[in-house]
Amino acid sequence: MERKESPIIKDKLPPRLACLEELAYNFWWSWHRSARDLFKQLDRTLWATTRHNPVRILLETPQQNLERLTHDPSFLRDYDAVIRELRQEIQNGDAWYKQTYPELYHSPIAYFSAEFGLHTSLPIYSGGLGVLSGDHTKEASDLGLPFVAVGFLYEQGYFRQRLDHSGWQEAIYPPLNPKEVALRQITAEDDACGAILVDVGDRTICLQLWEALVGRARLYLIDAGVEENAPWDRQLTARLYGGDHEMRIQQEILLGIGGVRVLRALGIEPQVWHINEGHSAFMVLERMREYAAQGMGFDEAQRRVRASTVFTTHTPVPAGHDAFDFGLIDKYFRDFWPQLGLDRDEFLALGSYDAGHYPAFNMTKLALMMSDHTNGVSELHGQISRRMWRTLWPDRPVKDVPIGSVTNGVHLSSWTGAAMHRLYRRYVSPDWVQRQDDPMLWSRIDEIPDSELWEAHVYLKRKMFSTIRERARQDWINRATPPEQLLASGIFLDPDALVVGFARRFATYKRANLIFQDVERLLRLVHDPYRPIQFIFAGKAHPADDPGKLTLQQIYNYTRDPRFGGRIALVEDYDMHIARYLVQGVDVWLNTPRRPNEASGTSGMKAAFNGVLNLSILDGWWAEAYNGRNGWAIHPETETDGMLDQDQADAGALYNVLEEQVVPLYYQRDRDYVPRGWVAMMRESIRTVGPSFSTRRMVKEYTERYYVPALKASMALKSKARPAMEAVEAPAGN
Ligand SMILES: *Cc1c(COP(=O)(O)O)cnc(C)c1O
After folding, report:
1. Is 732 left (phi over 0), alpha (psi -120 to 50) or beta?
2. N or C, which end of the chain has less CB nearby within 10 Å?
3. Which whole-number Å values give the CA distances from 98 to 101, 137, 631, 725, in the listed order?
4. Does domain 103-408+704-721 have CATH number 3.40.50.2000?
5. Mind listing the pLDDT tens digit for each residue in 125-151?
6. Distance 709 CA to ligand 1 centre (A)
7. Is the CB of 576 under 6 A from ligand 1?
8. To test ligand 1's pocket by mutation, which of 135, 504, 509, 614 has the most ligand atoms within 8 angstroms of CB?
9. Does domain 426-693 have CATH number 2.30.30.40?
């Protein structure tokens, strides 16, 4: 296989700056401040207008500007330093993993996910799951894991959101131009089609392949948009979570089965396979098929696959798990099960699960049955998952159901605002990024003077405001947005007053509208003449989720309701770019899921590490992180049963905390206008969340508790089984 280069940029760059191409084509730049600053220096305007996309900056910068920079000693000094840093890190063989597990360094770990959120310029994510996969990949690079990730290149990416004059969400699908993103096409020397073929029902689909470099890690993206495929088959990788069940099963065949074939075609031999959410679980079937083709019996093949497979489930509600009608399984797997040596019933039994209505082929069950190493994404979610799937282990008590938990984390250097980063470097440690999971280090947070910590926050808050205003201005210019609609965008917000942010997917369980339960009470908070409170909302509803869109519309209507006096804003088109400004710039990060529906949540971690205080239901990660001093819990005094009662009780608790604690603390200022009590809470939040809820902690935990045991187990099986592969037969099932 060969990597196609981009001739345009290569021809354009002066030889002295030739390595800019290497830098732009490795997402490494996106979490290294010095590299980001270099591209910003190259052209500040393009940096803003391309929404921080170095490939486009290099494509669009006039050549004479590049030539001029070759005579700019300060730029050249920075350039040399960044390139040195990049090279050192990419080639550095001493990273944590190699030091800790030198004997495992050459055994690749494969990670499959339906979405990856690496950067806004590559919109192949829809929300938390994708951002988590992206952050996981970046951290795997930092820690030096032999890591290779597999996902989809969606030609139309995830949609851009626009609200019409009535606040109804419209989805726009601007085509993704792979040439304007840090992607390289991988082709076989002799075959334009990439030579990766997958049978989907009675058709054979041809896949092309793209590679994204993520520091030391690699991400391979599957793409069915090639001429050899029928037009409807090219659509299979067009959109993220588009289409019906039939489309979905075909996509999942491409990801699971196609993904294994991709790695084979590349000559990569993973020793551990991580299924990140059930979408990619068909991978186990393909690996079973490979073993069967070598003549191995079903039970031994299953034992090997289980030993080397890690599965992470993300969904705490039964209906949220992908499941396919047996009719669809018949249609797409009829020719497959004989290859495993199974009949129809035996095959269906691998995934058959009745989530309440009738049995269907459940991707989570398939993954659970085929992995010896499985986990939920927070302690609470681990418990919920053990209870939810207990019927799969009927003779065990719930606590012994073999589903563990690894709480999610965020990639700190990707999400930390520049102002905070500077403070941490100066007062905590110049190498805080390298030592971020040392809890002792973060006691040094006390070294930062109150006023400086507060000023850094105020700076980030202003940056958020200027971003929001500039967006509104551009919308007004480009779309002639009616002034009335601009009211929604936050132009009336007061940067000095308390700002509460709520930004995430508009799934109904997240209850974006909880704060509007008692409008009169909210109005009193908003209009307090001395201590007003303001709200910024952002988020997309899934294109097929009408209740989610209704919630969005409801909030849009409040933004324009004169009773709220412009103190409620709805920022359109939430994505990683706008998320960055919001998690760094608001004062309070509000999260109101219907417990226990939030498996983990991660946006609050990003906020906490930037000194933004969490105000959240005790669900997901916050149930673990909250200590009474590092933010606030929305915790009703009475337990309720019904959903509506629960909403009411939670809303009541939310108003109470706002009125009695959040607002008074924010406005309690000293002579220098610094809110000392608030700043103390910011410190506590940074100190307790930073080292524990980072991907540094998370990926180390996956490595120690999942990847390494899986590696060792599968190696042991292989060496033991070699003499007489077929001789040992163990009972099937668990
Ligand atoms: C972090 C992030 C999320 C996850 O948010 P939750 O509140 O944890 O659901 C979703 N979308 C984007 C763009 C993010 O950056």
Report:
1. beta
2. C
3. 5, 17, 38, 32
4. yes
5. 999 999 999 999 999 999 999 999 999
6. 30
7. yes
8. 504
9. no
